[in-house]
Amino acid sequence: MAEVVRNKRVVLRNYVTGFPKESDMEIVEGTITLKVPEGSKEVLLKNLYLSCDPFMRNLMNKPQGTETSSGLNYTSGSAIGGFGVSKVIDSGSPDYKYGDLVWGLTKWEEYSLVPSSQIISKIQHTDGVPLSYYTGILGMPGVTAYAGLFEVGSLQKGERVFVSAASGAVGQLVGQFAKLTDCYVVGSAGSKDKVDLLKNKFGFDEGFNYKEEPDLNAALKR
């Protein structure tokens, strides 16, 4: 008989208006059977690391009749979803087996039963690389930054690069990748503290607060 265990979850209590409040979510405790239902092609995951990303805020709005392409539409009373790193506990898919480490779309709970299509990749884990990196530089933010800059943008050594939203998860990586390619990098962000981060921590050559610049063209020219 399959084992039944506790499953603690973060659920959306209310659809969000304005800035999210702690009261919009709650932690609830239920149970889950550690076996994929007979005949199912789904994958049962034990979640190890979860990522909190800006796109999740939009999914907290009350639905307007359209579904997201990710299939992650939030519903009141259900666990919120996002990117995460997980270990396969059981699988109805031939592509995954017990013990596989994977990253992809999961739920904010201890265990999740997900369609295999939501798993983006197996993790061929390298000694010395923390698994948590697959929620950042080796996950969605890093892949987005790298592909956008080198595959789409075709960055060349020594070019001048401007990054908007430069202190965000993707933007900060774009700037650092560009610096590693010997480029001159300027970033914009929405506060003095964020601009200081760009120049003093992430290595940008220059940065400015776009909220204090009435003429963005002039700021870029400067």
UniProtKB/TrEMBL annotation:
Domain Oxidoreductase N-terminal residue range list: 8-119
Oxidoreductase listed as a keyword: yes
Keyword Oxidoreductase: yes
A GO molecular-function annotation: 2-alkenal reductase [NAD(P)H] activity
Keywords attached to this entry: Oxidoreductase
Signal peptide: none
Lineage summary: Eukaryota, Viridiplantae, Streptophyta, Embryophyta, Tracheophyta
The name this protein goes by in its record: Oxidoreductase N-terminal domain-containing protein
PANTHER family: PROSTAGLANDIN REDUCTASE, PROSTAGLANDIN REDUCTASE 1
InterPro entries noted in UniProt: ADH_N_2, GroES-like_sf, MDR_fam, NAD(P)-bd_dom_sf
